[in-house]
Amino acid sequence: MLTITNLSYAYPDGTPALRGIDLVVAAGEKVALLGVNGAGKSTLLLHLNGTLRPASGAIVVDGLPVTAQNLRQIRARVGLVFQDPDDQLFSPTVFDDVAFGPLYMGLAPAEVDQRVQQALQAVGMTGYEQRPPHRLSLGQRKRVALATVLAMQPSLLALDEPSAGLDPRARRELSELLRTLPQTMLVSTHDLALVADVFPRSIVLAEGRVVADEATSSLLADHDRLWQYGLI
Amino acid sequence: MADTATAEPTAADDGRVKTWLALGFIFTLAWLPAGAWDALIMAALALWFVIGWKRIGLWMIWRRSLIAWPFALAALTLAIARPGAPVFQFTIGGQAITATDAGMVAAATVMAKSWLSVQAMLTLIATTHFSELLTALAALRLPPVLILILGMAYRYLFILQEEALRMLRARDSRSASIPGQPAGRNLFWRATITGRMVGTLFIRAYERSERIYAAMLARGYDGRPVTATQPPLRPTDYFALIGGGIVCVSLIVIAYI
Ligand SMILES: Nc1ncnc2c1ncn2[C@@H]1O[C@H](COP(=O)(O)OP(=O)(O)OP(=O)(O)O)[C@@H](O)[C@H]1O
Ligand SMILES: [Mg+2]
After folding, report:
1. How many domains are contained in chain B?
2. Which domain holds residue A167?
3. What is the membrane topology noted in the UniProt record heading this document (chain A) (predicted)?
4. Among A75, A108, A129, B57, whose CB has the most other CB atoms within 10 angstroms?
5. Which residues in chain B have Cβ-Cβ distances shorter than 8 Å to A105?
6. ipTM for the complex shown
């Protein structure tokens, strides 16, 4: 489903952010991406839909390499939700924003309507259709940001800290939602409760490298390593 | 924006000195009388020498100086507006128009002056950070309010640009195509989306600059420009100023003798 080989990336200012990432995720697998601030989680996720282009290495989604020519198809398969919802939302109303992806793909208006309603309901934002996204609270914006991608029904969800800024009930609902969604997922988070609830497999990044890739249960049971990785 | 244009080689030169020299050069140009070709040529050579010496890239400056061409069009009207000996005549819509010798000299002079002035400004901008320009203007005793407005406008432009970039990235990130469906609907729809984005952009940029302003107030900002005290000019700075002053004065002397 997702294959990353020897992926390295440095930001234009020279900051090295990823140093040789190798990763294989099978279809339907739900994987948590852990690591301290600045470990490279967001940078890795931004590569999945080609927002950032690797300095070296390759990414293949569903047999399709992430390259300039394939971007449009890749973006139908990979639903990326940026860490900062203001990076995600760009329309005058919530409805327009959630409808953009499906409309762009050329779906019929009736189908678009239905998908928008479904997506907003999934994130608990029904009734906010006509509100301007930039006037919503942070948690509300996070939820709308997730809806914009759910409405596109991608096969891989790449979510960057989806539970950050959510209230406890919204977290619970998010956890429930992620558990029931059928998609393959790679989700960065600092929320160990969410990890334990949803993700059978965890990957830990440190300074742009994969330092652990194993069953969540064994990682969470290893207090010493959690401490060492800065996760508790 | 300007950041990408900031060439490093002259970073060591004092921003105040550069600003004053550029302004002095432009004022000198403005002083030159019509038809002072020898002075204009020497001014051009002096400017290009500095551009070459500081490794700024003459070609880049020339390319950017094309923004001055509307001034050139305006200058052309001088050729027909000045009284003098007729050189040639043409008719537009039954109206005879005469270009005079004095008029053509005046037009050519204005074109040369504006082209050189634009190059001097571009050279300054390419080597000087905006905050340095503000400092230089403050040292010239420009009213603080004016400097504040300039600074705010500049910051706002950056916020605008930044917001625009992230909105475009957001849009691209969800511009997807699935097999068997034409992506992007039609041109009209995409234009509508872009139009709405522009509206949203201004609101967002405005609100963000308000938040930044609130943060400045929260940290004790009280409307006075915050500038660190300036280091004194070094001997090399004085040499540069004196050298530039001599060049400017000589240009004027050459033009009038
Ligand atoms: N636009 C940028 N320009 C330069 N360096 C950047 C940029 N964005 C991130 N970095 C650097 O790249 C490294 C990885 O950052 P990244 O955002 O991927 O971390 P992260 O794991 O997502 O952290 P967090 O948990 O805080 O979200 C950090 O050292 C960071 O300082
Ligand atoms: Mg991050």
Report:
1. 2
2. 2-87+155-229
3. Peripheral membrane protein
4. A75
5. 176-178, 181, 183
6. 0.90
